[in-house]
UniProtKB/TrEMBL annotation:
The lineage of its organism: Bacteria, Pseudomonadati, Pseudomonadota, Gammaproteobacteria, Enterobacterales. GO terms for cellular component: bacterial-type flagellum basal body; plasma membrane. This is Flagellar motor switch protein FliN. It holds the Pfam family FliMN_C. It is a peripheral membrane protein. Signal peptide: none annotated. It comes from Buchnera aphidicola.
Amino acid sequence: MNELKNKYNSEKIDHSINNVNDIDIKNKSNFEEPISFSADEKKNKKEIIFDIPVDITIELGQSRLKIKELLNLSKGSMLFLNQKQEDPLKIFANGKLVAFGEIVTSENTYGVRIINTKNS
């Protein structure tokens, strides 16, 4: 009886191995083909990306205070920053540094002129 079980189990194993070997992984019909887009579809996708809003932050400088100093701030208090007047401002897009700039004024409003961009 044990010989019969062993023979049955070995045939079952051999059969399953044969089924695995029957799979032709070189045959692409067993797998999904990559999706391709037409030029118009690609252009539309780019236009969608170009319409996504981006938060721009300009960093004039930084300062570190103790909580008691922060609580003592009031109208007329001076807060000194770590940057010099001639140092470039850091420009961030969604929290990532993307460029450097300098302050400009135009008709009573502030602006920033880009003086250098980050390559990445």
